[in-house]
Amino acid sequence: MLVGPDQLPSLHAALVEACAILGVGDKVDLYVKNNPFPNAYTLAIDGRRPFIVVHSALLDLLTPEAVSYTHLTLPTTPY
Asked: What is the pLDDT at residue 79?
């Protein structure tokens, strides 16, 4: 599910805040995948819009504060 202002608005707000702090604007999409295993990953392919995928099980384990903190502190390395 693509996260947006009408789909999981609090998670979308955390994404917007993180993107603003990092200076990337609205160039990143966030998806929640229904999956029983806690995980998250990112993918950026040259010429396409980068995105983040978070498994539903991970969101179930984290508090809203932890979700925001995690977005801002996970290191990202372009490959």
From this structure: 43
3-state SS of the chain: helix, strand, coil percent to 5? Answer: 40, 20, 45
Q: Is the pLDDT of residue 77 over 90?
A: no
Q: How far apart are the first and last CA of the chain?
A: 25
Q: Which residues pair with 9 in a beta bridge?
A: none
**Cα-to-chain-centroid distance, residue 54:** 6
Amino acid residing at 55: H
What pTM was estimated for this model as a whole? 0.80
Residue identified by tokens 């983040």 is 52
* CA 31 from centre of chain: 7
C-alpha 11, offset from chain centre:
8
Q: What stretches of 1-79 adopt beta strand conformation (E)?
A: 29-33, 40-43, 51-55
Read off the amino acid at residue 63: T
